[in-house]
Design a protein that fits this description.
The structure holds two protein chains of two kinds.
Chain A lengths: L6 E2 L1 H8 L3 H8 L3 H8 L7 H11 L3 H4 E2 L6 H13 L1
Antiparallel strand pairs in A: 1-2
Helix pairs in contact in A: 2-3
Chain B lengths: L1 H33 L2 H24 L3 H5 L8 H32 L5 H22 L6
Helix pairs in contact in B: 1-2, 1-5, 4-5
The chains are: A mainly alpha, B mainly alpha.
Chain lengths: ~90, ~140
């Protein structure tokens, strides 16, 4: 079975929280190189790992991971300002 | 670009290790049978040095050897997946190679030398690393 690509917001969330890859890796129990693979979307995490990541960021899993590409921050802001204008 | 270049050099190093190992075995087998002992020893020394240097540069320094010999409990899920994939491929390739060698030995009634046996054991340990070097886009362990 061909795996679908899983998109994520891990890099933005990690930077927002101000934690390093090593720190995040220690908190979720993986090698820090794996964080790089996850952030570059080169590796799909298991359900257990996805839940552990969600627990660190204190967000629901579907906010962090998706099978569809996430909108960029500039796109979200643009759409929001357009809605406000209306 | 830097990653591509480093992967190319790692692959070249891995290839050099394999070729020097094959050359050592072939030369030893020929040397014993054709009684070229002195010539064999002269050529074997640079080949051994090549094997040693390429092994250090492409397996030890890159972390390939350490990764493929890590205990399972020290691997995370991504590393387990990579190790499992490389071991499966390495096992298939090694089994085919050993069966071919056994066939040649049986057909030509050749005695198995200690050099061939040691080289095969060494190759069995190198194989997962070789598979990773040629299948992964980058090496990060």
């Amino acid at each position: 079975m061909e795996n679908r690509k899983i998109y994520n917001r891990m890099m933005i969330l990690r930077k927002e929280k101000g934690i390093s890859r090593v720190e995040l890796a220690e908190r979720i129990g993986v090698n820090f190189q794996t964080i790089g693979y996850l952030e570059r979307e080169e590796y799909n995490p298991s359900l257990d790992l996805a839940f552990r990541i969600a627990e660190v960021f204190e967000l629901p899993v579907d906010v962090i991971f998706s099978t569809n590409p996430f909108q960029s921050i500039s796109q979200i802001l643009k759409e929001r300002s357009m809605e406000e204008e209306r | 670009m830097k990653t591509t270049q480093s992967m190319t050099s790692i692959r070249l190093g891995v290839l050099l290790s394999m070729l020097s190992l094959i050359a050592i075995v072939v030369l030893f087998e020929l040397g014993i049978r054709l009684e070229w002992i002195a010539l064999m020893l002269i050529i074997e020394i640079p080949l051994l040095l090549t094997l040693l240097i390429s092994f250090i540069l492409s397996f030890m320094r890159t972390g390939l050897w350490k990764f493929t010999h890590k205990p399972i409990k020290d691997l995370d899920e991504r590393e387990l997946e990579l190790a499992s994939k490389s071991l499966r491929t390495a096992y298939s390739l090694f089994a085919i190679l050993v069966l071919c060698i056994l066939l040649v030995i049986a057909v030509f009634n050749i005695a198995v030398s200690i050099i061939l046996a040691v080289s095969l054991i060494f190759l069995a340990h190198l194989m997962p690393g070789i598979v990773i070097a040629f299948t992964e886009k980058s090496l990060r362990f």
